[in-house]
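Hi W.,

Here's what went into the run:
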Amino acid sequence: MPAKRHAASTTSAPAPVTPATLSSGPSTLKTNASAAAIAQHVWEQYLATTPQRTLLLDAFMAFLVLVGGLQFLYCVLAGNYPFNAFLSGFSAAVGQFVLTASLRMQTSDSGSGSSSKPSSKGKNARFADDNEDQGSGTSHERAFADYIFGSLILHFFCINFIN
Amino acid sequence: MRWCLALLLCCFLAAVNALSSSGSRLLVVLDESTEKSAYSTLWSDLEGRGYDVSFESPKSDKLSLFQHGERAYDHLLILPPKSKGLGPNLTPKNILEFLNKDGNILLALSGKASTSSAVSSLLLEIDIHLSNDRSAVVVDHFNYDTVSAAEKHDVLLLQRPGPLRPDVKAFFDGEGVLALPRVAPQTLGSDSALVAPILRAPATAYAYNPKEEMPAAEDIEATGSQLNVVSAMQARNSARFTVLGSVEALEDEWFSASVKAPGGKKTPTVNREFAKQLTAWTFKETGVLKVEKIEHHLATEGEVAAEDLNPKIYRIKNETVFNIEVSEYSYDKWVPFEVPGEDELQLEFTMLSPFHRLALEPTSRTETSTVYSAQFVTPDQHGIFSFRVNYKRPFFTNVEEKHEVTVRHFAHDEYPRSWAISAGWVWIAGLWSVIGGFLAFVLVWLYSAPAADKVKKTQ
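Here's what came out:
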């Protein structure tokens, strides 16, 4: 899953990379660089350019993927006997992941959108982003409050369901 | 006062029914009163056992099996009439109706005269067949009485029968030799579970009409132990019908006779004891089962409170105990019922088809009954179930019990909690680590929020 995250960031990374060479980022990539070098470059770019909260979000999502994967693996290996326990444990991880992903969309996109050139990138990329950028857009505080509210409901249901 | 009267009435009834478990009014149908004296020992034996014996001729106008639509007698003993048929009051239809109303019948045949077609058609109704040649008698050249039938070989000497099958009680067992003169043989229909042989002819016997010159070898229907000397039919309502092939065996003469088998010693017959066993079984003095009490409840330690007995509803996977108390009538009293041989009394827990079929084990015994019990877990299926005991064996009255109960599913708070199941601990840990991770994330997020804001502002 983290690899996918990298892949996702590679698509968005090149756009800011070309104009951001003069910023504090690492040296620009040569045209015939090896795959490992590209990966390392991307990773360094990611660490350097991602805000700290987004990094935190990514770390938490990686943790959720790990917890969910372990639970699923245990279910496959040891059987699903208290099936409600499996459902609620696994769906807590998945649901938390979904909620965290939406929080990431609401916070990091608007952040990057407002920081870099809004019009050119927004229009070319996605319609939803465009909407968020131009519209009032949810504030980070509002997004975080929604996130906590949603998570509490999720936890309430999961704890009830696990009996 | 009324209570006292009821008790008195009960005592009277008990006194009246001191012998047979189903009444003491016995009607004997016989031709002439001269014939009556030939069986005087039988009559006195029956009266000594408490029967209220009345005699009627088949031709009599007064003879009626029913009065005001009810049975006028409890038992019927029919001796073979001299004339053709049993008369207008004892048609096969009447006799079968008597049987349907729980009356018991002992029908004696004789090989001396040919059996009437009325009797033959009556027996056909209950799947007992007489030979086509209605005056045939059973002859055996190895088991005959050398004293009285040295020439004709038509007085059979037989042992009293043992159990019919390993799972059937022997009601006609005992020592000694039976003398059965001039037996009219019967064969039983193979597809009826209600008929059973009481006494079979020996393997060396065959049926033969002494009036014919030459035995017709081509139309032999049955030989040897296919021929029955005494056979019985117990209807689904447990009314009994017994056919005795040789009426002469009941005569005083044969009760006290001494017989001698070829190459044997001279011994007295046991016809009198056999007649007692036969009439006692037919008139329900033996082989009568009664279910005294049925209890079922949840399996618990110690005594079960009265309000917990026979609940109407159980839950799936409940540990359940079923008790049934069974008595057997033996001549003049109720005794504990013992399942004969390898047989077992079975309990079925059914909804359309049995989900459980269990052997009931004897657990305790009272003075008059045995308590059979089984313990089982109700199946994982909710619905309307019934406890059933269905015990139908030859010579025993039928036991058919059905008690309906509801089996419900688990209530939502009756499942085990998840932490009680160790297999679920991983998922519980997973859930709580997600929640713990969430809390830690929120704390770090709030802590790091200003820095993120600053980044935003600088940009």
